[in-house]
Every structure is written in C-alpha cells, then in structure tokens.
Automatic annotation (TrEMBL), chain A:
The keyword Membrane applies. It is found in: Cell membrane. It comes from Lujinxingia vulgaris. PANTHER family: ABC-TRANSPORTER METAL-BINDING PROTEIN, METAL TRANSPORT SYSTEM MEMBRANE PROTEIN CT_069-RELATED. It is a multi-pass membrane protein. This is Metal ABC transporter permease. Keywords: Cell membrane, Membrane, Transmembrane, Transmembrane helix, Transport. Belongs to the ABC-3 integral membrane protein family. GO terms for cellular component: ATP-binding cassette (ABC) transporter complex. It comes from the Bacteria. Pfam families: ABC-3 (PF00950). Signal peptide: none annotated. The chain crosses the membrane at residues 23-46, 52-72, 79-98, 110-130, 142-173, 198-226, 238-263, 269-293.
UniProtKB/TrEMBL annotation, chain B:
This is Metal ABC transporter permease. The keyword Membrane applies. Its main location: membrane. GO terms for biological process: response to zinc ion; transmembrane transport. Pfam families: ABC-3. The keyword Membrane applies. SUPFAM superfamilies: ABC transporter involved in vitamin B12 uptake, BtuC. It is found in: Cell membrane. Belongs to the ABC-3 integral membrane protein family. PANTHER family: ABC-TRANSPORTER METAL-BINDING PROTEIN, METAL TRANSPORT SYSTEM MEMBRANE PROTEIN CT_070-RELATED. It comes from Lujinxingia vulgaris. Gene3D superfamilies: ABC transporter involved in vitamin B12 uptake, BtuC. The chain crosses the membrane at residues 13-35, 42-61, 67-88, 100-120, 140-160, 172-195, 201-222, 229-248, 254-273.
Amino acid sequence: METGSTDIFLSRAAEFFSLQYDFALYALLAAVLVGVICGLVGTFMVLRGMSLVGDAAGHATLPGVAIAFLLTGTKSAPALLLGALVSAVLGAMTITWISRGPRVRADAAIGIVLSTFFGLGIVLLSYIQASPTGQQAGLSEYLFGNAAAVTPAQIGVVALAGAVLVVLVGIFYRPLSLMVFDERFAQSLGLPTHWLELGLMSALAVAVVLSIQAVGVILVAAMLIIPPSAARFLSKKLPGVMVASVVMGGVSGALGAMLSYVYEGVATGPAMVLVAVFFFALALGFGPVGGALPRALRRRRARQRAMPGGAR
Amino acid sequence: MSFLIEPWQWGDWMWRGMLTLNLVAITCAVLGVFLYLRRMSLIADALAHVALPGIVMAFLVTGSLDGALMLGGAAVVGLFTAVAIEWVSRQPTVRSDAAIGVVFTALFALGVILLSTRVRDAHIDTHCLLFGDVLGVSDRALSLVAWSTPLILGLVAIFYRWLAVSSFDARFALALGVPVAALNYGLMSAVTVTAVAGFEAVGAVLVIALIIVPAATAHLLARNLKAMLAISAAHGIIASWAGMYLAIGLNISAAGAVVVAGGVLYALAFLFAPEHGRVWRWRRRALATSGPPRPLSPSG
C-alpha cells in the first residue's frame, strides 16, 4: 500500500472514531455490543461442544419473523423481533430435545433443525410474497444484516438485554461453569441441569436475535464461534477465556464498524467477522495455550533438555 | 387425481425439475449416510455455504460468468474448506464443530465482502444461490447433475466396503490397511461436487437438508447399512415429490417445500419408528411406572 492511501485510511479511521456523525456512533455501539454479547454467550456454547447450535438458532429465526409478519401485517420491529426470539428458542430447544436419547446424533439434530426451520421460513416468505398485501420484507438485509440502519432505540434495547445477560451469567456462574465442563457431575450434585440448559438456550436465542440486525443470520454464528475459539488459545481458565472472548468480540465489532465506514460497499457484519478471523489466526499461531509457535518452542526446549550439547 | 398429472402437461419444466431434484436427492442421501455415520453431517452445512465465496472468487480470477469455470472455482474452494476444517480441528484446543464454524463463516464473510466491493457489476444472484430455481432448471444445471450423479454413485459402489468399514470404525479400517485419510478427502470431494452441481438447481439450503435429514431418518428405521442407504434415498425421493406438488399446489417456494416435507418425514420417523420411535418409548415408560408396585424379588 502506498503512503498516500495509508494516510487516507488513517484520516478516515480517525474521522470515524471521532464520532462526529451520529450514524457512525450508532453503528459502532451496535457492533461492539453484538461482539460483546456473542463473545460472552458463545464461550459457553463453544466449551460445551455445541458451537453450531448458534448457527441453527440464527436460521431458526426466519419462520418466526414470517409468522409475526403474517399475524400483525406490519413490519414493526418489536413484533418481528419477538417472533424471531420465540422461534429461535423453539429451534434451540428442539435440538436439545431430539438429541437426547438413542439413535439421534447431536450434529445431525443441529442440521435437521437448521434446515427444516429455515425451509419453513422460506415457504412462509414465498407465501407472503405471493399474497397481494405482502412484499418480501427486506430478505437480503435480514440475511446479511445492516449495522448502519440500527436506530438509537434498538441500541438501547440491545444494551439493556446485554446488561441483563451479564448479570444473569454472573449470578449463575458456578452452576453454569460446572455444567459446561461436566454435565453429569453437575447433575449428580442435584443442579437443575434441564433448567440451566433452557436458560442457556434462551440466552443464545436472545444473543442471536439482538445480533441479526447488525450482522445477519449467517454471520451471527461467526461472532458466536470465532472469538471464543480464539480465546481458548489464550487462557486455560474459564474466566480468562470469557474475558478474552468478550474483549476480542468487542474489538472486532469496533474495528469492523470502522472498516465498513472507511471502505465503501463493505458491510459491518462481514468486516467484523474478518477482524475476528484475524484474531483467531493470531491466537492459532502465538496463543500461549496450544498455539503453534509456543508449542514448537516448548518442543525445542524439551529436545535440548533431553539431549544437551545440541546432538540431534 | 388430475392434480397429480396436470403439472406434467404445463411444459417441460416439470419433468426437468423433478428429474434434477430426484437425482440430487439420491446422491445427497447416499453421501449423507456416510457423513452421518462419521458424525460429519455439518460439513454439508459448511460446504453448501462456501459455494458463494467459491463462485465469487472464480469470477474474480477468470473474469467471466462462464458456468464450467465458476463450478470449478467453487469445487476448489470447497476442497480448500474441507482441508482447512480438518487442519483447524487437529489443533489441541479446537473441537471439530468449532472448526467447521470458524472456517465456513470466515469464507462466507470474505465472499460477501468481495461480492459487494469487487463484483458489483456482475450479476450474481445471492438469493438464487441460496434457494435455487427448481422450477426453472437450466440445461447446464441439468446436464451437470446428470453427469455427476452416476459418477458419484459409481465411485461409492466401487469403494463401498472401504467406506462402510471406515465409517463404522476408522481405527479398525486403518489396521486393515484401508487408506482412511485419502478416502475421507475423496468423500469430501464427492460432497463438494454434489453441492456445487446441486446448488444451481436446488439451492444451498436444500442441499444441506437433502444431505443431513434423510440419513437421520434412515438411522431411526434401519438395522444395517444397506437398508439405511435405501431408506435414506427413499426419504429423499418422497420428500422431493411431496414438496414439488405442495409447491405447485400452494404456489410456494419449491426448495422450501421440499425441505419442510423432509422435516415432516423425519418427525414422523422420530415419533413412530417401530423400534426407536419416541411414542412407543413413552408408552413403555408409562406402563413400567403405572400399576401396582411389584415385589423386588419373585415371592416363592
């Protein structure tokens, strides 16, 4: 890159972070909140080995949105979001319900719910489109998200829900962490694991619904999976992973919103995801817990200890 | 019964759509069984999503919207995805489900950005990529499916024993001298080719459903691998026919209707499968817990 374009980039980035434009402020707030909330909830999902439930819950919002539209006949945001929330919770609960018991693989259960719910959503949308009153209610925006269109009221809702989530995670921290690492042990202690499961799935659904507006259906899964996966390379302890995941999610949001402001045509969602992927690649290479470089160094040190004098 | 026959007289789009849909359904159902047994169903989710970045990148490299080149590009990106997922999941702190999630969403994000910045002028319809156009299958899509289906099914037949052994017990297969890793990449390539050939006709969402759901139904009903393959293929075909007629009758999205029909078939199998159906299990449990308490040991 030439110095000229670097200068332009820096001045545009400074312009964005000076927050003199309201829409830049709103996009930044929305993206950071989404990154933080997804980083927090995603940590539990990734550690439980249920990363892709978030993907399924994201796809499962579609029929809820369509049914809410059919029932109310308006594109009013609260109704559509409520519909999305209900069907996301239903989808997540269906996954845990059918994957309990024999002859059902958990990964297939995720795929079944994802495709069937999404298929139902497509069917309903095509029905709405064919009916005289309906028009396709911004399907591509719904699929890919648009952080720049987020209103202050929506940011308020997201911030409030995010704060509630943080408080709830704080209250239920011990049972949740037990359940994440050893569900049977938690059960044997008499913890209500079914209710915790329901709570976790509801939290996931809330996170998904709050994020869809900013990042879209498909990429909400990325924000739920990539920051926690990167954080696992940084710490061996749950609080460490959680904090690292939340920080990386938030920073990805901020940088993603900035990139989307600087480069015309780049949407916030994909930009956030690519920043998070960059963090993941760094963690994969240099993370203290199982990163490639520290592992190689440790192996070399061990070899030197075993064979002093450098004999090979 | 006229509604069953009538659509066939409206033009050749009906038999073209049905033929394509059924061929895709059979291939997906057969490959889906092996993926299911290996607990790799969600690879299908990943491979169907990376078709978007694959096509966009192929367009950027070749500069044309020519079909063969784009499909080639999509296949290359699909294979890259399979290799990347395999590599990431071998890292000590990353589970395979997280590896799938990281890799395909990253590529999808890249595809969306490239699409919006570099290829704004070219006409790449994301809606069509996701949902396909079952009622308007192009010659290219039809011939692609017609070629790839016998090819893939033939390969599955040739390597059937190896695939079977390594799906049930990879270590045992390795001990027998089966080239498990090569077989694995072969299977991934077959899924990629099927997804790429299928998504133009039926869309990414339907490819995912046709790979994952029939195998899951078959696992509830079958007692051996051959029966599982047969039931899985039958599920794909029944869902295709039911979905097509639903779509025509109600004037709704064909891809969506086939997906929903498949989901309903799975739900029926889940509840009423002869041996493993949940309804029978609930009844057995209710019978076991009701009635007078029985003595712990036979009273003599």
